[in-house]
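Notes from the 1:1 (GR / supervisor)

We went over the backlog. Supervisor wanted to see one worked example end to end before approving the batch request, so GR pasted a single chain during the call. The sequence is below; no edits were made to it. Supervisor asked that the structure be written out right there so they could see what the output format looks like.
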Amino acid sequence: MNFGGIYPAHSLREATFVVVPVPYDLTSTYQPGSRRGPIAIIEASTNMELYDEELKKETYLAGIHTTLPVDVDARGPKNMIAAVRKKISKIVALDKIPVMLGGEHSISLGAVQALKEKYPGLSVLQLDAHADLRDSYQGSPYSHASVARRISELCPLVQVGIRSMSKEEGDFLPTSDVKSYSADFVAERKDWCEKICRDIKGDIFVTIDLDVFDPSIMASTGTPEPGGLYWRDVLRLLKSVSRTCKIRGFDVVELAPISGDIAPDFMAAKLIYRLMGYITG
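Structure output shown during the call:
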């Protein structure tokens, strides 16, 4: 199955975007199921119009290649992150734009590590309900709850949509260089998008945990949080950063499909396709 149902499939050589499914959720701590997210997104994408009504173009003509899923390493998240890093490094070496489908959020670290090697000035934009800044969680520094902490040790990090964190994370933020914007900031400030865009520049990786969205439109996540962002909020931000930054790769993680509710799957697929469109201008 190819993202977008593209047939014949684009070869790796002719593709601009390389879609990488990573069906992994070993450290999930509330509702598991994000391992089924990549296949649900790809299946939904095959029912999506390939003409983008906002951008007035067929984005897929830029070339979209879908790889086989990354093999799951059950020894633990550190090994899985290493497997992701190896896979993404090969794609980045070919000057392609990796698009990773999760799976739980821990896998994003491997992609950031790979891109940081290629683009030393890399920054990360994280859209998420949760800060994910614990130094470790349940004995692992590579848990999904620690992914942003590890990323912040590698490169500048800007968070948007945050509305849940532990005391440890709340104490850590003022001592760090992480710029963290709450969902309330987005809701209450007319200039929220412009302010955030001033904090991120150059080469960036965008990591989108789907629980950044309000659960009224995105219930299919492992840990839904009330008070989230909405479709047009997220598109406004992504469109803006695609104009002011060079998006070198992105991921969409934490879709935990609910049987009989296909709307979140389709929403995730269209979000990915729209962001591809923004990147290609």
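Supervisor's comment: Strands lie at 17-22, 64-66, 97-102, 123-127, 157-162, 179-182, 202-209, 245-253.
Batch request approved.
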